[in-house]
Amino acid sequence: xxxxxxxxxxxxxxxxxxxxxxxxxxxxxxxxxxxxxxxxxxxxxxxxxxxxxxxxxxxxxxxxxxxxxxxxxxxxxxxxxx
Length: 82
Fold this sequence. Notes:
The chain is mainly β. The chain has no helices and 6 strands. The chain has strands spanning 5-15, 18-29, 32-42, 45-53, 58-61, 67-70. A 6-stranded mixed β-sheet has the order 4-3-2-1-6-5, with no helix packed on it. It starts with a strand and ends in a 12-residue tail after the last strand.
């Protein structure tokens, strides 16, 4: 099993024609990358809603903080659409 490393993703999102900086937890599993959109705890288990990313579109920004910027299109779920 691959060791997970957690970082932060910063992405400029468009909402209602305006730019908005979004910061989300970022996880790597092997060569795959995910942002954590939401999570819930049930007993000892933690369930995560993850969005799969193209890791080739990630660019490391910052030093030891481990922050990344995503150059691709990130489509985030909207609660009002559920």
